[in-house]
Fold:
Amino acid sequence: MRRAAGALIRKDLRVELRTGEAVPAMLLFSLSTFVLFHFAIDRRSVEGDLAAGVLWMTLLFAAVLGMVRLFVAEREQGGFDGFLLAPVDRTALFVAKATVLFLFLGAVELAALPAFAILLLGPSPWGAVPELVAVLALANLGIAVVGTLVGALGIQTRARELIVPILALPLMIPLAIAAARATSPLLLELGAEPVPGRWLAVLGLYDLVFGLLAFAVFDFLLED
Amino acid sequence: MGAADGAPAVALRDLGRAYGERVALAGVTLELPRGATLAVFGANGAGKTTLLRILATLLRPHAGEAVVLGSALPREGWAVRGRIGLLAHEPLLYRDLSARENLRFHARLHGVAAGRAEALLEAVGMARRAAEPLRSLSRGMTQRVAICRAVLHEPELLLLDEPLANLDPGAAGAVAPLIGRASGAARVLISHDVEQGLAEADLVLGLRGGRPALLAPAAAVGADDVRELYR
Amino acid sequence: MTPALPLDDAGPYVAAAYLVFLALILIYVAIMAGKLARIARELGELTELVARRDERAAPADRAGDGSPSGAGPGSHAGEAVPR
Amino acid sequence: MFSRGLKPLSIASVVLIVGAFALVFFYAPNDADQGFIQKIFYLHVPLAIVALCGFVAGGVFGIRYLRSGDRAHDLRSYVAIHLSLVLAVGALVTGSIWAKGAWGQWWVWEEPTLVSFLIVFLLYACYQPLRFSIEDPERQARTASVFAIVCGAFVPLNFLAVRMAESLIHPRVLSTTGGSMPADMRTTFVVSLVAMAVLFVTLWKYELTSKQASMQLRALKRRLADDDDPWVPTGRSAAPQQL
Structure:
């Protein structure tokens, strides 16, 4: 299981390094969205819950791009068949893909967050970096799990570019609520306030529920 | 594995599969001993690929029984995975990775040493171009890499869908020890080259509209009997 | 809390809500009626098909090829029909 | 297979629905706060509760399909979700009318149950497009079951998150649990809820029977059509085509 997941993760990262199909696109999308937000809400800078909202809207939409791409190579280049022929646990594919999406999101945020701080954010976020990283990690985990599930659902269809976003966005609403509420105290004009623990708990619960669920049902998406 | 080792490579009874309301395969009954070769003939859409995918555990049968290497499908599919080599119509390789990376990836999935991948690349004459991404290779070269992938884990049953497609005679000679009779594995071979297919086979299955139209030892089948299937 | 509205103001809203429910049920009935009509039409086609098949099968039996006509609907009917 | 008990169920739903509405208008008193407009409550809340239960039932049948591979469960799941979507539209529209009547606005974000319900509706609205975009019937059934299970688990989580986001700031306006409801109002509500549930089961069985009838018809047609090709194309569909 670990051997197979490791091989899959390494394979995906290598393909991504070579082709740059997901992360650069997600990052560019995020930057364009920040610019769009600047004009759409007509603000030079944002703070507090508005900042958290803008940030999470952007990140969630960028994540959807990654979800759509996640399984394309497996479907189009026979990766599913190649994997299914090997004597390994099928859950390895779920673990690997969720990890890859998690890493992609982390990579995007590594560049998108400084860009956000420079372009739009009023208060300096640097004082609250550890809390911010914690919220991002919990939220990314949820996005990765749900995204892998939705990506695998969408890849079964003939219209994955449509199905994945319309499925993923409503599914991520609880996550968006919790992530935005947890982030907004960190981005206040008058200095960061502590993160409300209950929103971290909601994020954790979300990760847990969908993680267990994905473990239970993912195999069925691979059969034929 | 005890008793399973004495079992035939493939034993089918009334095997059937439908896609929705379209019947792709029905009523296939046969037995293929270990080390023997079954040649499958039939026009496009006759059910050859469906049969191959069922044997590879990628498709579950809807009717009848399929026992592969002593394990009943689909229930015991886990027991035969890793003992079958599938050379499908598509190479099942990542186009953005090189031949070496692809094979090493599959070697890791199958728990095979990386040295085996190198040896195979050498054997099919691909060692020199093993570092190029597959998308820059010709179809014949890709096919050679795909053959390496199929035999990487030394399978006991080889499922071959037109294995020599796009291969020049030299390359065909190079892969013969891997996927030919010399490999020692039982083989299910789909071919459109009637003479060559018959020469390789011990048993011949002809499919028409998903149903067996011909099932006989290869010695008793003439090339014209097979051509009749395509009419 | 917003103060309670007088009855005559609220009446139309309540009526509208219950009418929405009624409309949903009626639309549902209409859709099911469409489906039923299709089933009836297809059944008609099938009846016709069977009638034609019987007509074709009857002379074949009289020609005396010995095939029993009472194969029954359960067996594969196609076999009794000469091509 | 599906039609058993359909007749008594139909009669029961007629009696119960008529009875429930009679109770609503002739028995239950006007609400002390909201007055006559509160009568929508006896329609809106049962619609919403039954729709949610239908969604969850769809997930349960999805689990049973994945465990057994029996297409009948997929059909049950499909019809349950499909009907629940219809009821959900009713719940959203009646909820909106209630909001307009009581607070002068067509939509109130302060009401977490309504907001959650909208989210759940948006999610389940993807069910039909998802099914429609998968041609292979077996894959369609499996993917739809996975969807139904995932969304079934999503429903409570979503209610929790939305409730937490709103209720700590605003008092809940449409109290639905009925803890403080007078007895006659509660009786009316319970009867309405039961009536709606029975109506749902009746319609569910009705549609299952209809689907089964057309499937049998198609199978019969295939058998009678005596050409070599046994395949009568049926076109793409979101609904299960075969048992």
